[in-house]
Amino acid sequence: MMASPAPHWGWDRGLPWRAQRWLRGARERVARPNPAPVVVFGNQKSGTSAVAGLLARLTATSVTLDLEPEWRAPCYHQVRRGEVAFRRFVRRNGRGLSRDIVKEPNLLLLWEAYLAAFPGARKVLVVRDPRDNLRSVLDRLGLPGDRDDLPARDRRRNGKGWELYLSGEWLGLAGWSYVEVMAWRWDLGYRFWAANRADTVLIRYEDFVADKEGVLTDAANRLGLAPVAGLGGEGERAFQPAGRPGRSWRAVFGERNLARIEALCAEGMREFGYAPVSG
């Protein structure tokens, strides 16, 4: 069965928040991570939720659509910087990591540690044209794309997770603009692919949208999952809030930021078949 990305605990809601927090942490710690899940990697707003959720529907398997502790009180950035051990990250996310299919965009930042700890994991990478991908992120956050940088208050206004997404200092990218940091995050998917293409299933979001059931059936077969049901009405389900795709890339980013995106993502764009427009 499909699992909710944010479990509802039910009976413990009447307890004080500290007790709820302790119980949720305890449930995470006692859960056993799946040693060989299907892990869906990809940048935020690239279609990973839809791919993971519908793949679970197609194969009647359980799914995590985000690691709950990582959007409530993230620590992945501390793991990335070496301040927190990866095994602690695994313990605090035990429930989410126990499912048949695991999707968490920030795992892309920790992919080497994750695959070292779970060598039996089967890998999927979802990619989307970086200009559409980054536009969708900005639409989700209600932010402009044509600035050189953002005030700190705008980085913070959508919560800690998105503040980390827009900031480069903790990634060693001090002095980079927020659009450059976003492009770097997209390019991380290409770097993952370059290192793991031999045993990773690649799904382009554009191909997925054109033929969801066909793309997912092929992916399921390659991953060793048996398709057991059609998508039905689930195929039209929106897993994330809709953006505003009607605007041109130049209108969203301006010439300067559009050129920055295409320069930073150039190699991955060539690899995945996305043609540049600036230059």
Key structural traits:
279 residues, alpha/beta, Rossmann fold, five-stranded parallel β-sheet, 5 strands, disordered N terminus
How would you portray this structure in words?
With 279 residues, this protein is of the alpha/beta class. It has one domain: P-loop containing nucleotide triphosphate hydrolases (Rossmann fold). Helix content is 48%, strand content 7%. The protein contains 14 helices and five strands. Strands 2-3-1-4-5 form a five-stranded parallel beta sheet, sandwiched between helices. Helix 2 (48-59) crosses helix 12 (212-223). The longest helix has 19 residues, at 178-196. The chain starts with 16 loop residues before the first helix and ends in a 7-residue tail after the last helix.
List unreliable stretches of 5+ residues: 1-11
Number of extended strands: 5
Rg on CA atoms, Å: 19 Å
CATH fold assignment: Rossmann fold
Shape: globular
Q: Quick one: CATH superfamily?
A: P-loop containing nucleotide triphosphate hydrolases
The quaternary structure here is single chain
Strand composition percent: 5-15%
pLDDT average, as an integer?
A: 89
CATH-level-2 architecture: 3-Layer(aba) Sandwich
Report, as a whole number of angstroms, the end-to-end distance: 48 Å
Proportion of helical residues = 40-55%
Total domain units: 1
Strand order in space, largest sheet: 2-3-1-4-5
Listing every helix as H and every strand as E from the N terminus to the C terminus, the arrangement reads HEHEHHHEHEHHHHEHHHH
- The SS-based structural class is alpha/beta
The largest sheet is:
5 strands, parallel
Question: So what's the CATH class?
Answer: Alpha Beta
Total number of helices: 14
